[in-house]
Amino acid sequence: MANSPQAKKRARQNERRLEVNKARRSRIRTFIRKVEEAIESGDKDAATAALRAAQPQLMRGVTKGVYHKNTAARKMSRLTARVKALA
After folding, report:
1. What is the 3-state secondary structure (H, E, C) of 59-71?
2. Which region, left, alpha or beta, applies to residue 5 given φ > 0 means left and ψ of -120 to 50 means alpha?
3. What Cα–Cα distance (Å) separates residue 80 from each residue in 14, 34, 46, 54, 77?
4. Measuring CA to CA, which residue among 35, 45, 31 is closest to residue 80?
5. pTM of the predicted model, to two decimals?
6. In this structure, are residues 53 and 31 in contact, taking their beta carbons and an 8 Å threshold?
7. pLDDT tens profile 38-87
8. What was the pLDDT predicted at 65?
9. How far apart are CA 46 and CA 66, in angstroms?
10. Any alpha helices (H) in the chain, and if so which ranges?
């Protein structure tokens, strides 16, 4: 357990950041899931629209430190390729 006042404060901050980051990660996953559902349904227009909505959310996750830049780029690249492959 934290003993110094500084360590106690840092522990409190970490708990708050954990909640914020958890919510942010969940929100991004929801946007990605919507893209995947549109791909599964075979609707290219819906998939493209969902992908356009998901891109800024994923990049915002990078800016906020929830995801690594390369992880977000990889996810976006794979989703884009799957949307393009729809007939």
Report:
1. HHHHHCCCCCHHH
2. alpha
3. 34, 13, 13, 11, 5
4. 35
5. 0.86
6. yes
7. 999 999 999 999 999 999 999 999 999 999 999 999 999 999 999 999 97
8. 94
9. 27
10. 5-41, 44-63, 69-84
